[in-house]
Design goal:
The protein is 71% helix and 0% strand. By secondary structure, the chain is an all-alpha fold. Helix 6 runs antiparallel to helix 7, helix 15 runs antiparallel to helix 16 and helix 16 runs antiparallel to helix 17. The longest helix is centred in the middle third of the chain and has 36 residues. The N and C termini lie far apart (57 Å).
Length: 437
């Protein structure tokens, strides 16, 4: 039964060839037809594609919806749409099929997914992504080496997203995340990135290897954070320079202190960080993944000044969120929901307090001032970094207060989202107010 369902899933991916020959309005029309067909007609023609007796049609409908969204968002980049569509069709489709072959090996972070499925999603997705982009627009991917690496990176992100225990259907999350990676890749200049020497990378690797080993040995971080910290820290230092690395260390030191400050009191209240306050790989990626991407873009695009502002803004957002949450749980006297102003118990999702908010703002100001003193951002960008951090933290509180869906990675997804929002807002303001170099 699953073979039939996934066979239809992958056969639909062959329609990606239409992106090369149809005009924009034609592609939109096909997307709309796909939504209507999958919603009303496909379940009648192939009733066995329904996953359960309730006739849940979300998966088959979200498939063409995601394609339509990509077409609307990227009207001039059909090659990117094609690459994302291919990972959705062939990568995600093969993940389900391969995950049921042989003896399943569950993933550590999501036992409902398997190593076989994630591996198949990556390899089939990478091959499909590269082939689809070349088929739809050979001129767009004329730099074959760059786009091959981009396809591999996008497929890796897509396979990872597909494996996460998220409450959102992966027919939406996978293609959107893949398209975002490919969209970023178009700005990467290989010649600029080539300015980073092998010696710099090795030095960054050694420094981070020593630091994460010490922190793991002294139980400052959880063991799972070792490899995540090593990878992200190496990219941050090699691409963003020692200035960016100091900002990262400042966030880590301040965040670790805030987490352990008043830990006994937090434990009594039931709001203390899990694992005795030790951060794991999830927390490392959630808080430092976005700044690391901006560090990479600072070293690989023609807009390093803009990217450094975005890097500082995303780290300042993480700093504000961590300090306002951890210190607010200790000193906050009257936590309220930002949506209603209602006074709620300490630890309520989305709740804010005056004490916590002021502590978070102080942390964001400290990081912004440090970024200026180190020469990472000009003086006029200090308020921009702080405003972006405040906006990112406030947005997370609003989302947390409104969206009540509970799942394992909830806090990590919220943290990743607020750093992305803060960083992108900082980038947008920098783009409009300062020259690129």
């Amino acid at each position: 039964m699953e073979w039939k369902r996934q066979g239809i899933h992958m056969l639909a991916g062959l329609l990606v060839v239409l992106l090369r020959y149809l005009p924009y309005w034609g592609v939109l029309s096909v997307s709309l037809f796909g939504i209507l067909f999958n919603l009303f007609f496909l379940p009648r023609i192939f009733p066995s594609i329904m996953r359960n007796v309730t006739g849940d049609r979300r998966g088959v409908v979200f498939y063409p919806v995601s394609v339509a969204v990509l077409v609307i968002l990227l009207p001039h980049h059909m090659a990117i749409v094609a690459g994302a569509w291919a990972v959705l069709s062939f990568g995600d489709g093969m993940a389900t099929v391969a995950g049921k072959i042989g003896r399943p090996i569950p993933l550590r972070w999501n036992p409902k997914k398997t190593v076989q499925g994630a591996t198949a999603c990556f390899f089939c997705g990478a091959a499909g992504c590269a082939g689809a982009m070349w088929l739809v627009d050979p001129d767009f991917v004329a730099d074959h080496q760059k786009w091959l690496v981009a396809a591999v990176a996008a497929a890796a992100i897509g396979a990872w997203v597909e494996s996460l225990p998220l409450p959102v259907n992966d027919n939406l999350t996978v293609p959107l995340s893949v398209a975002f990676v490919l969209w970023i890749a178009q700005w990467v200049n290989v010649e600029i990135l080539g300015a980073i020497t092998g010696g710099e990378v090795i030095f960054a690797l050694l420094v981070n290897g020593v630091l994460v080993s010490i922190m793991t040995s002294f139980r400052v971080v959880h063991g799972s954070a070792t490899w995540a910290g090593l990878a992200l820290g190496t990219v941050m230092m090699a691409c963003g320079g020692w200035q960016s690395y100091i900002l990262l260390l400042l966030f880590f030191v301040a965040g670790t202190w805030a987490t352990h400050h008043g830990f006994h009191y937090k434990s009594i209240r039931g709001v203390a960080q899990e694992n005795a306050g030790r951060r794991g790989a999830r927390q490392v990626v959630a808080n430092c993944g976005v700044p690391t991407v901006f560090a990479f873009l600072a070293a690989s695009t023609a807009f390093p000044h803009w990217m450094m502002v975005a890097l500082a803004a995303s780290l300042a957002t993480a700093m504000m969120d961590t300090l306002s949450s951890e210190l607010g749980q200790v000193y906050g006297r009257y936590p309220v929901l930002p949506t209603t102003g209602e006074t709620v118990p300490i630890g309520t999702e989305g709740a804010i307090s005056m004490e916590g908010t002021l502590s978070g703002l102080a942390g964001a100001v400290l990081l912004a001032l440090t970024a200026w003193l180190l020469g990472s951002v000009p003086a006029e960008m200090i308020p921009v970094v702080v405003v972006a951090a405040f906006a990112g933290g406030s947005t997370e509180s609003l989302v947390a207060a409104v969206v009540k869906v509970d799942f394992t990675w909830r806090n990590d997804i919220l943290n990743f989202g607020n750093t992305l929002f803060g960083g992108m807002l900082g980038l947008l303001i920098a783009f409009q107010t300062m020259p690129p170099s």
